[in-house]
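2024-03-11 09:14:02 INFO receiving multi-entity request
2024-03-11 09:14:02 INFO entity count = two
2024-03-11 09:14:03 INFO echoing inputs for audit
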Amino acid sequence: MTQAIAEIKAMLGDRLSTAEAVREQHGKDQTWAPGAPPDAVAFVRTTEEVQGIVSICSSYETPVIAFGTGTSLEGHFTAPFGGISVDVSAMNAIIEVNAEDLDARVQAGVTRKALNIHLRDKGLFFPIDPGADASLGGMAATRASGTNAVRYGTMRENVLSLTAVMANGEVVRTAKRARKSSAGYDLTRLLVGSEGTLGIITEVGVRLYGIPESIAAGVCPFPSVDAACQAVIQTIQLGIPVARIELVDEEHVKAFNAYSKIDLKVVPTLFVEFHGTPAGTEEQSGLFGSIAEELGGGPFTWATKEEDRQRLWQARHDAFWATKSLMPGKEAFATDVCVPISRLAECVNETRADLAANGLYGPIVGHVGDGNFHVVLYCDRSDAAELARVKGFYERLIKRAIAMEGTSTGEHGVGSGKMRFLELEHGVEGVAMMRRIKQALDPKNILNPGKIVAL
Amino acid sequence: MTQAIAEIKAMLGDRLSTAEAVREQHGKDQTWAPGAPPDAVAFVRTTEEVQGIVSICSSYETPVIAFGTGTSLEGHFTAPFGGISVDVSAMNAIIEVNAEDLDARVQAGVTRKALNIHLRDKGLFFPIDPGADASLGGMAATRASGTNAVRYGTMRENVLSLTAVMANGEVVRTAKRARKSSAGYDLTRLLVGSEGTLGIITEVGVRLYGIPESIAAGVCPFPSVDAACQAVIQTIQLGIPVARIELVDEEHVKAFNAYSKIDLKVVPTLFVEFHGTPAGTEEQSGLFGSIAEELGGGPFTWATKEEDRQRLWQARHDAFWATKSLMPGKEAFATDVCVPISRLAECVNETRADLAANGLYGPIVGHVGDGNFHVVLYCDRSDAAELARVKGFYERLIKRAIAMEGTSTGEHGVGSGKMRFLELEHGVEGVAMMRRIKQALDPKNILNPGKIVAL
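2024-03-11 09:21:47 INFO inference complete, emitting structure
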């Protein structure tokens, strides 16, 4: 390790840090996943530098852990076996924007907001919005999604190609720029969601979209979670191209009203957004309103004005802070299950009953068009009894989702936190297949060891 | 081999055939790729039978080659090293349709038309349409797409999960039914497009869509290929959700007029289709018409009536037979490059100039929304000089597409025919990565050996 650090230091100079504060910051995320600092942090600027570091680390069998903005939520970038954290945040060049092809290529450290600011005057945007201003490299690595996925897909659908440094130091570019290809194994999709365990992503090719001529957003109250979920199902089945459709439960509405000084009825509520032509969004909004009304929901109040929309979505985005402000002194703990939407109401209702039975505060917010919802648990970790109830609830939540043909994680990823649920979800054989891939591509287990599958 | 066949015979009885005609039919596709018959053909009914066959073949290191409908175009199912062809066409059960979740699960032998007939009275459809009535297993294995991909994506986007028998005889189900997941490596996308070389697909989970309330289709003539491509770019950039947008060149129009008794102007022509509400498709058609007009195209004549639409798309689907009827005695040879759409006009124009310079007849048809186009070459293979010109053209076509940041194959796959272009497209490192994956998952090289990557 000392030798590896010395060689990297010779290459990067001051851009390799072993300062304790820097190491700590690169070894602990904002969740309650246990932290573990790396031995050093390399602030890289180019693919070649990453290649150099990986080659050195390969020689000394030293772990290499990619770091973007540090906003991931499953302990993805902790260094339980030490090693070198490769911080790509200075790799922030937008390499090319091909407006006619609706694609762009960026270095891995470019954040989604930086990309969108760059694109704005071209009339283009990149839709994937996980909330945090994450780096594109990190979003690709965790297969991120967020509120827009119901319309635009996740990083799975929106990454066209990747450049990555593999464990043996080779640089692979996974695809050229064609929209589709049947030319061999899908290396792009294999790296998307691999959380730095198969290769270190240094460049990302992404799909872009034209900024819609008209964006209409609104809120719609419902008498029950079931009615709200039924509205979502009917909306999607009718082919209404809803851009966002988010469920917030009563607990969240209460918190919004207090925190964001708005005045919503305290019932399960859908936040929706439509993208299209003015006539198109008006028609879509009207159709959605009728569906809601038939299910006893509504009135659906909608806003086409930019400031009204912003205020609405700001409240939604502040959900975390809104609920946190009601729970001073408690730590928040995010969950991320996703089920087929036909099972969503059932899953949410059982989950709420479980919360109530255990006296837990866990407001729910969901990307319900995808069947994905987050229970944000609040817990005082010094209270052993509460902690035990939270842990039991968490275990049951994930098992419930998988039993309903869903997944332990819709968008946050596995990291170290969800490894123990992988066999339940993918079977012993599926996890064995993942392990064989990991072994083949990283035989020394130097890339983010201890995440996804243990060798 | 004899022993392997005897053991499989004991399991399947009459459903294992070594008849020459059956073997020939399972060893040669409709293209001019060289055929190579398997030693026996197994007509399987269940995943367990496939598992049994693969286990036996693994013991004896005998090749196993999956066979669906035999409609693939790159020699995918030939058996250059002999072995057992596993014909899944009798695995034709539709296992489940989850209307609320817009998904279905089928056995691998179910064809797309059979699925759509089953779905019709539920108001649902499966959009991927590669032309042939291919099996869903085969379509997944080759990452098929076709005319609808511009709107609905390819098999990459529309396969939710797969069940596959791996080389070691283990059965892997790659995902549950959630719309999205970040739970580990994307085994689904790794198997989609793997052409039977990593596992034998026995069940396919697919996305479904509601049948659109309104479908509008039409044709629009253009003064040049450039103008037509520019119309495509502007249409997509404006976010008009075109469902199909197909370019046919003058040669094709001539052939259509003769074969399908229609009367189109002999110029580059776009066939387009819109899906949506009646108001939506009317608006989309109007916007498209304005774009075409500004580029000197039009008039855009459109049809919402089912019979008019059918007649139009029938002509498009009969493209192959229409051109073939003009070239009696010649063999057809399909190509399949795909480039970024900004390069499409340039690529098509250079390709047409190349055809002309070499005195070749090669009408062009393209899924231009994706940048994918097919030159259908006609050749008398007994004419050595013509054959040499065709081969030279083919080589230049693929290199041209890759030089324009495109791919050697948009939707047909690699098979044995395009292996030699893979390194040009993915680099030595990319192909080495594919080879490492193949080695890890099929160390004895029994699954469709000699395809995609050679071990």
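2024-03-11 09:21:48 INFO post-check: The domain at 214-320 of chain A is CATH 3.30.70.2190 (Alpha-Beta Plaits).
2024-03-11 09:21:48 INFO post-check: Chain A touches chain B through 98 residues (CB under 8 Å).
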